[in-house]
Structures are given as C-alpha cells and as structure tokens.
Fold:
Amino acid sequence: MTKKRLKILVSNDDGIDAPGIQALAGEMKKLGDVTVIAPDKQRSAVGHAITMNYPLRASKFYKNGEFFGYAIEGTPADCVKLAIRSLLPEKPDILVSGVNHGSNTAINIIYSGTVSAATEGTILGIPSIAISLTTYGSEPDFRYAALFARKLAEMVARKGLPEATLLNVNVPAIQKKEIKGVRVTRQGKTRWDDTFDVRRDPNDKEYYWLTGKLEVIDTSDDTDEIAVMNNYISITPIQYDLTDYATLAKIHEWKFDKLLRD
Amino acid sequence: MTKKRLKILVSNDDGIDAPGIQALAGEMKKLGDVTVIAPDKQRSAVGHAITMNYPLRASKFYKNGEFFGYAIEGTPADCVKLAIRSLLPEKPDILVSGVNHGSNTAINIIYSGTVSAATEGTILGIPSIAISLTTYGSEPDFRYAALFARKLAEMVARKGLPEATLLNVNVPAIQKKEIKGVRVTRQGKTRWDDTFDVRRDPNDKEYYWLTGKLEVIDTSDDTDEIAVMNNYISITPIQYDLTDYATLAKIHEWKFDKLLRD
Structure:
C-alpha cells in the first residue's frame, strides 16, 4: 500500500525570511511536500486584512542559494488566498502558519496575522493550524515548537477538523523537559492596558507610539494565557462566526421596529 | 432635572473625508457632543489591524472651513485606541462607526475595518455600533442609515449592551418606505468565491488582482445577508471570543499529551 504524500502549505506573518518559518518548513518537509507562501516582510498585528485596491506580486525567495518559497507583497490572508486560488496547482491537505515569534493568546488572537493566515485557510476549506512561540526575546529556539507543529499536523491530517474550526497553538519558550503537558483551552479575556507615548519629532511635531502592558483579568486554568504561563502547550479551537448567540436570543425583545416610526 | 449630554465618538474605515461619516456625524450631533476620529484615508478590508512598529500622527481635519475631526495616519482600530487612550479627555458614552459604503455581512465582517473600530471600542468598554449601507453604487444617499444609527444609538445609550457585545447594523440602500422592518440576525455563512486576475505590467512583469463574487451558501431567513436582500435592516450582535466551544468540549479526547512523547 502506498501512502499519498501530504501537500502542505506553510505561511506566517513575520515574513518569509523569519527564522520561525524556516524551522517550521524544515520540520514539515519530513511529513510531506511543502510549499512556502508568505509575506515579503514583517506583517504582525495586521488582523484579517486583505488587499483589494492594489495588485499583489509574487517573487521567488531563495535561502542559502536554494529555492525556499514565494514572497508576496501582501498580508498573511492575501498569501493564503493567492496560494489556494491561484499559485498552487492543487488544494493543499493542510496549512500551518508560524512559528510566530511571540504569543497569540487572549485578545492578541484578534490582532494576529499568524492566526489570520490559518483562518483564511479554514474559510477556503483547508484544515489549518496557527503556531506561536511565547517569547519576545531575541533569537529564540524555534525547533521544538516546529517539531510539535509537525506532530500535531500529522494528527490533524489523520483525524480532520470540523469544517469551520482551526487550532491555535501556543508553545512556551522553555526546554522540552520543562513542558508539563498539553492543555485544550479557551481564548482568555486578558487584554492590553494600552498607553500612547506622546513624542516630538526633530521638527517639533507630535506623534504617538502605542505601548502598554498585559492586564491579566482572566486567571482561570482553562485559558490559553494561563496554560502557557504554567508551562503547558495551549491548543485552542477557534472559529470565525462572531455572532453572540446568547445576546441574539435576548435582544429580540428590544422592539427595534419602533425605530422605523418617526 | 438636567440631562447630561452624551459624549459620542464617531469613526469609520472609508476615511475622514468620506460622505458616510459626514452624514453620521451630522445626525449624531442631534444626540450629543460628537468627536470624529477617523483614518486619514480609505482603510477598507484592513481587518483588526493595529500599528505597533510605526508612530501614529493626528492632524485636525476641516470640512467647508469648519473643524470636523482628527485624521489619523492609521487603521480604524488605531483611531479608536488613540481616541480613548490619549486624545479624548473623557471616555465616550457610545461609539458609532460608519456609515460604511458597502455591506458588512456574512464573511465580510471579519475583513471589515468598520466593524473593527466598533470591536476596539467594545474591548475598551464603550457600547459600540457599526453601521453600513449595503450598496457599492457611487454617491449613495447615507441620510437614512445615519438617522437610523442615531435612533439606535439613543436606544443603546439608554439600555446599554452586554460587556463584550457590539451591534453590527446593515441598512439596505433603498427608499425608507420600502424598508420592511428590522431583523435581529446571525452572521451568515455566505463567502467569496475569490479569483485572481493575472495581469502583466508595462515592464511585462506579472501581478495578481483579487476579484470574485459572493457565493450565497446560507439562505436562511435569520442571516444578515438574507435580511438585507429582503429589504430588512439587519442587526447582528457580535463578540470577539473566537473559541469554538462545541469543538472544545469534544477535542479533549484527542490525547494530545501523546504528541509530547517521541
């Protein structure tokens, strides 16, 4: 019995030259045929942006003299749309986005380009995984997160995922032997206590720079944020139906039709 | 008894010079004290992007010789963060984003800058409304949608909204007398059947341009898409917890801990 090789699409939001995607693509090649299609430069915190008013360009990107993948002048969601709708000859069996440099937990999920690539894959019918390493330190070691992504991708390829669901994975940036286990989590409610630095440029004109610190307002063990803080790998199934069904059931009594009368 | 005037923040994603935000701000002034803080130019389909790696600038924007609001070199979410965290002396009582030129229903919600502004307001604790006029025709009449937004904002200011919920409103672009009523809806599953035009620039280099048509795969009467098609105003309560709780309950049996062993 011959096993058909998996067709794997790899993308990210840190850009095609980031070490995280290099580690990920290297691992994924052990599992199947990999195509890398990723932004030409860093596109963090771009949310689920797509490019409609400008053209997209794709160019071949080489690493150490070898063809590595396609660099796209666009967002992570653009890369995945273009890959699946145009560049790839066949639909991939699985999409893996990452390894992101920095966590994508709690409120960060909605700003995340890494998650956005996986969301676009899911919309287009591809089982998809977003994977992040929870450190902002310089030159982190992406190898274990990439290895874990490969094993999880193998499991997902075998079992499938529900039609509109992707997996958002966060791996703590510690030694493998310190990892306590894997926890299936919900998106925590922890958010940013933003502040803006008000500065003046050399021409004495004001500008603002976003900064701030995390406000951990959800300390429950079943959240993504707390799982990684406690040295667990966090896996959160997420989806893109934003309907608030609890409120939907209640809000009918608001008599909105009255607003139509003057 | 003196009623305290409402403090209202108005933003959008079509840019501060768009006619939709002018109509909206004009109506909102009948309800309270309005501050307009909006992108300096069109920022459609930017999703929930925020700017972290570049500074933001705010400049005063004048319309017909009068101060209209602050133009921000950033995304809709940037505008709302900067407004609430830095520019405004007090937290606004309500945020209204729009009137968008074009519908924000079904899958479009997750790409929408208009909705993103309202989402950011909700995250920051402000009852928020996104409002869109469902036409892509040129020079549409935003007046009725703006008037409806004002009436709804009055209702929301009185009743409040659940902590993490915003209202996404779509108004069909028809005469007021043709509007059949208001429907409380869920986000439909209708999505884009994307294609990319492959073209060549004057230097004979290839580029890609996103196009496509809506694929109406969810024709249920309780969806936003079908409500506006049938001449109803659609109001969808939405939230930003992306956890797929149904899958979360099931996926525990997957034995992810096995992936940690070699």
